[in-house]
Amino acid sequence: MKDGLLTDFLALEIPTVKVPPDGFLEIIGLSHYETINSRIYSYFLDQEKNENISSLFIYSLAEIILEKTGKSIIIDTFEVFTEVSTTKGRIDIVIEDCNNKSVIIIENKIYHHLNNPLLDYWKHYKYKNKLGIILTLKP
Fold this sequence. Notes:
Largest sheet: 4 strands, mixed
Oligomer: single chain
Structural class: alpha+beta
Strand order of the largest sheet: 1-2-3-4
Number of domains: 1
Number of helices: 5
Strand content: 15-25%
């Protein structure tokens, strides 16, 4: 589009969309369930079950947090929990490091609108070093 003309834009070749092959969650019809996806994330974050993968996951998450927010959080020895009950709801994923008094609170939103009591989730943990994340396919 040299001159920014609509005709130049319309003359561009439209790329074809490549549909990825179905994964096992698509095959069994469960790819859109947040609880199942949260449990898969927690499995790979579990330091006892998957030490190397867990380290990679948490390091990558910390890097993305730093890049997107400018905030750093120390998470070394941690536990991962799913469906943590609060007074007003359930947190999808919690990554808690009791030694460093740090926590990452994750709300997993795949194909649903956000109507969760996020302030309640935030107040559930008294740590000063905490982060809240909304995992979503669309901003």
